[in-house]
Design brief:
By secondary structure, this protein is mostly beta strands. It contains three helices and 21 strands.
Length: 300
């Protein structure tokens, strides 16, 4: 081999080695997404306290972790808890992102929360330990408003008829109709006392109308749910908390099964029953937007 040949071979090898080194260092440590390793730029849950056990890592906000495989967000790292869904199962966190991260008790970024500053690691407080349902990276300084249609079910829903929004029905609509689907869990949007429960029955007619009325003494308002199949355990006099399960979406007082929905109505004062809407041309309730905003909800 000539001196020139040896030189060219050595140069080629050096270039190849240099290319390998460059390729290795070009990819940042945070490039891997949800690999069970808490890397720079990520927010991470740990199954056990004191940052022990399996890790679940995130690069963005999540509104609902889900509770069943294969759709849930799970613990991916080695150690105790690996493979378990993280919802209501985390004990500690490490915030390696560059922003504050807010961990919420409820799905949809609602309910009680705990903030972790950029770079902070620590245990979830007693309210949130094993009660974590969503997180928000970079929240505003104030508590963000929750979406009303999501919070009703702790899952995606949609408004089908707004307040005073009848288009094909005679009368003035006194509440908000929200839809997820027959059998969906319906939750309380407020804390208060149940003052009236009527189960009703499936099908049309006011005699079949189901009603759950919750009185909020602190603001002297009543929130009323119609058409829901109430839990058998619901009783007048019972205190309920925000997010508590009330029943399932149904068609009690509705003409057909496919039209199952939940009517949510706010009435000033203490009322056992909803205001009449169909074939009634006088509005008894004010627009509910300001009330729902005061409760931390965006009406959509």
């Amino acid at each position: 081999m000539t001196t020139l040949t040896r030189f060219l071979a050595a140069a080629t090898a050096a270039m190849a080695l240099g290319g390998t080194v460059l390729a290795t260092t070009a990819a940042p440590a945070s490039a891997a997404n949800r690999n069970g390793v808490c890397e720079a730029g990520e927010f991470c849950y740990y199954f056990n306290s004191n940052n022990q056990g399996s890790v679940s890592d995130f690069t963005g906000s999540v509104g609902d972790y889900a509770t069943k495989q294969p759709s849930c967000f799970d613990f991916k790292g080695p150690g105790a808890g690996k493979g378990k869904c993280i919802k209501n199962s985390a004990a500690s966190v490490w915030n390696r992102s560059a922003k504050t991260v807010r961990v919420f008790f409820n799905s949809g970024h609602t309910g009680k929360f705990q903030d972790f500053a950029a770079g902070a690691r620590g245990n979830l407080n007693p309210t949130l330990k094993n009660q974590n349902a969503s997180h928000l990276i970079g929240p505003s300084s104030s508590t963000p408003r929750a979406i009303l249609s999501f919070s009703l079910y702790a899952a995606r829903g949609q408004i089908s008829t707004g307040f005073d929004g009848y288009k094909n029905t005679p009368g003035r609509h006194e509440g908000i109709d929200i839809v997820r689907g027959l059998g969906a869990n319906v939750r309380s949007l407020v804390a208060g006392q149940i003052i009236y429960v009527a189960e009703g029955g499936r099908g049309s007619g006011r005699s079949k109308l189901s009603t759950i009325s919750i009185y909020m003494a602190s603001v002297n308002k009543t929130v009323i749910y119609l058409h829901t199949d109430p839990l058998n355990s619901l009783r007048a006099g019972q205190q309920v908390r925000r997010g508590q399960l009330l029943g399932t979406e149904s068609w009690h007082g509705v003409s057909k099964k496919s039209s199952a929905h939940t009517h949510v109505e706010m009435r000033p004062g203490r009322h056992l029953r909803a205001a009449k809407s169909v074939r009634d041309w006088k509005l008894e309730n004010p627009p509910p937007g300001p009330f729902w905003n005061s409760q931390g909800y965006t009406v959509k």
